[in-house]
Write a structure and sequence with these properties.
Layout lengths: L1 E8 L3 E9 L6 E5 L3 E2 L14 H20 L3 E7 L1 H5 L3 H11 L5 E4 L2 H15 L8 E5 L4 E5 L9 E5 L3 H7 L11 H24 L7 E3 L2 H10 L7 H8 L3 E3 H11 L4 H7 L11 H14 L4 E4 L3 H9 L10
Parallel strand pairs: 1-5, 5-6, 7-10, 10-12
Antiparallel strand pairs: 1-2, 2-3, 2-4, 7-8, 8-9, 11-12
Helix pairs in contact: 1-3, 4-12, 6-11, 7-11, 9-11
Amino acid sequence: MHRWGVIDIGSSAVKAALFEVDGDSPPRFLHESDPVATGLGRGLTPGGPLDAEAVARSLDALTAFDGEIRERGGRLRVVLATEALRLARDRERFLEAAKGRVEGRVSVVCIDAAMEARYAFQSAHVAFPDLAPGSLIVDPGGSSLDLCRSPTGRVEDLRSLSLPFGMNHLMAVAPPERADGRLNAHDLARLRATSEEALRPLTRWLDEQDGLGSPLVATSGAALAAAGVKRRLASSARVERIPLSQGALVTTEDLERMVEECHDLGAGTRRALHPCLSRSRAPIFVHGTLALGEVLRAADVTSCRVNAFGMKLGALLDAPSHEKSPEI
């Protein structure tokens, strides 16, 4: 048996997970660290430069997570960067700096949207072996919404779509810093209108494939937070929430109830009411919950299953052979 770590440098946060690999068996989740909010993609426009402070936070998080993986007896397998790096004109400079932080021991790659969708697809099919062919896999991130489905259930037939819609876009509409995360009726209306406009291509895409109403799997921080609230989890530690949230069924009614209950509460009050919300998630909980509900509506479904493992599991499945991993 071996232990492999994967680090995801996202547009909002850096995340790290550790899995156990034993031959041809599916990887088994061991640990996920609490994300470090970095805001790497916040305010970034296509072709624009990355914010220097956000870069520093992201690189420091990479160094810390690499050390933590080694302390837990694992070895870092791959470092992935997503939409923020795809947009930035100084992408290569960041990737070189990141490679230096891990001393060139592993690949540090900026994956395209199609590969991100592939990883989410592979993760969902390992997490849910009974997943029906044609199911829609949705991965809402900080700066993009990545979706995919395969009519046959095979990765060779995978079709994907990436939309410029994510938490960073919603925070620009209603900045969480303005009122400690509180949102009024006007804010909610603007967020819904922004979401509806951004998600029209999703509805058209699914309609063209006769995919409206297909079973939906969501994998994101917003989906994980909603699952934790649905299951009334008492801890905000990600390593505890992930196995307890895995497979949760979240409905549009659940999401609307969460928005109604929490939109006019400050972040601290939200955490007191729902201890599973982390300090970084609580101010944007309503943003993400509302957006997830709008995604379900655009896809013409009333519920989703939550894959708490995210695309990191799928990335590990695509990594090269595990011959040099430290044995447990």
